[in-house]
Here is the input.
Amino acid sequence: MTNKLTLQDILEKAIQKEIEAQELYRNLSRRVTDDAARDMFRELLKVEKKHEELLRKYVRGELGEGALKREQVLDYKIAEHLDQPRIKPDMKLSEVLLLAAYREKASHEFYIALAAEHPWGNVKSLLEELASQESEHKQRIEYLYTEVAFPQTAGG
Here is the structure.
């Protein structure tokens, strides 16, 4: 069965995923003891909030040229990028970081796919920029993951 979602459905799911990312980074910023990691998660929290605000502007029709109609059906499997596992209370930090990296990867793929459906214009450019930012977030989280999962020993 093919997923048939309207643009409105997809934008609402994307907004929810941005809110979930904010919650994840808020919780991680409280959990980590390293100041640099805490600062990174706080920064990611702010960026994800901006993403949510941009998506809400799209829903309200405030982004200008190149927007699709909200009721338009988009016939591609975008839902695979939105269904992600829930966080368990007993997860190790390295597991949570992997989950965060997965979410950023899925967000990147989501914005690339959505941008591909749009004609040239402000909205397409915005979606491509969001994709780029999500990819950068993934890289930063993966770097932190390597520091947590493979800590440097005193011997090298």
Notes: DSSP finds four helices and two strands in the chain. The beta strands are 5-6, 73-74. The CA atoms of residues 28 and 41 lie 7 Å apart.
